[in-house]
Each structure stands twice: as structure tokens, then as C-alpha cells.
Design a protein that fits this description.
The protein has helices at 25-50, 55-68, 112-122, 131-139, 153-161, 234-239, 242-251, 257-271; strands spanning 2-7, 9-18, 88-94, 100-106, 127-129, 181-186, 192-198, 219-221, 227-232, 275-280, 284-289, 293-300, 305-308, 314-315. It is an alpha+beta fold. The strands form two sheets. It has a nine-stranded mixed β-sheet. Helix 1 runs antiparallel to helix 2 (55-68), helix 2 (55-68) runs antiparallel to helix 3 (112-122) and helix 7 (242-251) runs antiparallel to helix 8 (257-271). The protein is globular and about 45 Å long. The structure holds aspartic acid.
Length: 318
């Protein structure tokens, strides 16, 4: 398991855990491109932080930007179901109020994370899924996108190659990681928030909902403990309620954030799962993954940005 601890960061991003490698020039270039997107998003987020954006606004902003990038498995660039279309899941949580919003099985909303946020802010519900839910968001004026525009040529190729099976997150599979995205942040008022968005697993069954849509599995935030966003084989994160497990270890067992994260991921592995997560308290940020790598980045209190995919992080200079 790879674990990194950072003192007093403001925002942590992940762009998916999995069998990341850099043994071909093409793979190295792809990794660099993804790192550059993450670094650029954090540069813009740094300005927003200084302007006083809330933690919720910051995580929504970062995840929206990753949804817009075709290089990540969220929004445009999502992976495809067995049938060859996109179904997207997302969730967001406010550490100050423990309010949350979650959506699943969306096929034509441009920003699933903003649908989750809208649900949290403007309805009594926490979780809506499926076509009728999507129609409600459309009626409320949320931005739509032509479903075909969500599908990139690269995802189509991966879908064809992955005939009959899902991409998994183990190094042995040799398959590309799917690049689910997530963000955790703390704002100037000291509030925490977390957000996660994904197209799920390649060639998943239509109607399958993963951990990224589930509060407590893929996303969790509570000012009393931490904010968490996960990535990996969703079914195992659901069974281990991994994001909530980190929170419970910090609050009930008084573990340090790093110990809580290691404990949760050891449990994930004991269930047979693989993946990673980002977690943040007011004093500490943790990146951890059981896979070969995880696309990731963070913003420090003195506005420096670090990015990486495999073991080492490097300072990002635009
Ligand atoms: N956790 C996501 C899911 O199972 C996939 C991923 O993180 O790559 O839907």
C-alpha cells in the first residue's frame, strides 16, 4: 500500500487509482497530460480559495473541471456500459452540516456533480437515480449534453478491447485504470467538503451503481473528523463503507488520519478489493492506494501545487 501524508494542505484531488504505468512514451505522455489537467485545475481553485469560496464550492468546481476533461472517467470521457452508453454517478457532502447529495445512472446531464449539489441545496432528498430523476434535473434547468458527446474515441476503443469483462484495478490485469475523479477541501472558515464523480467501471451492467454515488462508501465529510473521496472497485468500497470507516476510526477510535486510512484500505484488501482514496482533516492530508498508482494533486497553504501518478509527486509549474 502506498501512503503519503501532507501537512496542512487546502485541497486534494484524485483522478483515479489503478494499474498506472509509464513504460511506454505514450503512457508517460498520458500521465503527464492528466497531471497537467489536475495542476491547472488547482491553480484556478487557489484563486477561488483566496476569494473566499466555501469548501463545497471548491470541491464542486474541481470536480466539474475534471468532468469537462476527456482524460478522466467522469462527464465527458466516461467509460461505457456493456451496452455501449454512458451512465454516470456522483456525490457531494458538506462537513459543516452533514448535508449530502447523490445521483446515479445519469445519461445526459453535463455535470453530475452539480446535479448532486443541486439536489442537496434544493430538495429534501439525498439520492436520486435514473431517467425520471434526470428529467427532474432537466426541468430545473441543469445543463444537458448530447449523450454521444460524452463518449470519446479512446473509451470506445477500450470498450471494444474489454469485450466481456470489466476493467479492474489490479496491476496484474495490465488494463488501464478508469480515472474516476474526486476532491476534498477545507475553506478559510475551516469547513470540510468532499465530492466524487465517475462513469463507473468499463462494461458495467446497465443500472449498476458504484461507490462514487454512495455517501459513506465513496464520499464522506464531517467537520468533526475528515473529508474523504475514494476510487477503485466500487463493490468492495460499498461492502466496506470505506469513506465512513475512515471517519469512524478518527472519531470513535481516535486514530490519526493516516492510521484510519491504512486501516480502512487494509479492510478493503481483506475483502478482495483494490483502489485508493484522498482524505483531509484541518491539519493533515492523506493520499493512499493499494494499486500501482493514483492520479493525484494537492494545493498547499502557501499556494504551491504538487502532482503525480505513481510513487513520487513533483511540484507543478504551469
Ligand atoms: N469506484 C468507481 C466505481 O466503482 C470506479 C473507479 O474508481 O475507477 O464506479
Amino acid at each position: 500500500m502506498h501512503v503519503e501524508t501532507v501537512d496542512h494542505p487546502l485541497i486534494l484531488l484524485h483522478g483515479g487509482a489503478g494499474a498506472i504505468h509509464e513504460d511506454t512514451p505514450r503512457a508517460r505522455q498520458r500521465n503527464e497530460e492528466r497531471e497537467t489537467v489536475l495542476g491547472s485545475i488547482l491553480r484556478d481553485a487557489a484563486t477561488r480559495y483566496q476569494q473566499g469560496d466555501s469548501a463545497l464550492d471548491l470541491v464542486e468546481f474541481c470536480v466539474r473541471a475534471m468532468e469537462d476533461s476527456p482524460l478522466f472517467n467522469a462527464g465527458i470521457g466516461s467509460v461505457l456500459t456493456e451496452q455501449g452508453w454512458v451512465e454516470m454517478d456522483a456525490s457531494i457532502m458538506d462537513g459543516a452540516t452533514q448535508k449530502a447529495g447523490a445521483v446515479a445512472l445519469l445519461r445526459r446531464l453535463r455535470h453530475p456533480i452539480s446535479a448532486a449539489r443541486f439536489l442537496m441545496d434544493h430538495s429534501p432528498y439525498v439520492f436520486l437515480a435514473g431517467p425520471d430523476a434526470e428529467q427532474w434535473f432537466v426541468d430545473q434547468g441543469l445543463e444537458t449534453i448530447e449523450p454521444a458527446r460524452l463518449i470519446t474515441a479512446e473509451r470506445k476503443r477500450q470498450w471494444e478491447k474489454a469485450t466481456g469483462r470489466q476493467l479492474d484495478h489490479s496491476a496484474e490485469s495490465g488494463m488501464e485504470p478508469t480515472q474516476t475523479v474526486g476532491a476534498v477541501a477545507i475553506d478559510r472558515a475551516g469547513n470540510l467538503a468532499a465530492a466524487t464523480s465517475t462513469g463507473g467501471m468499463m462494461r458495467k451492467a446497465a443500472g449498476r451503481i458504484g461507490d462514487s454515488a454512495l455517501i459513506g462508501a465513496g464520499t464522506f465529510a464531517d467537520n468533526r473528523s475528515c473529508a474523504v473521496s475514494t476510487t477503485g472497485e466500487g463493490e468492495f468500497f460499498i461492502r466496506g463503507t470505506i469513506a465512513a470507516a475512515v471517519h469512524c476510526s478518527v472519531t470513535l477510535q481516535r486514530r490519526s488520519l493516516q492510521d484510519a486510512v491504512v486501516h480502512a484500505l487494509e479492510h478493503l484488501q481483506s475483502l478482495g478489493g483494490n483502489g485508493g482514496l484522498i482524505a483531509l482533516t484541518p491539519s493533515t492530508g492523506v493520499f493512499a492506494f493499494t494499486t500501482a498508482g493514483m492520479y493525484r494533486a494537492y494545493l498547499t497553504g502557501d499556494q504551491r501545487i504538487f502532482v503525480g501518478s505513481l510513487q513520487q509527486l513533483r511540484e507543478f509549474s504551469p
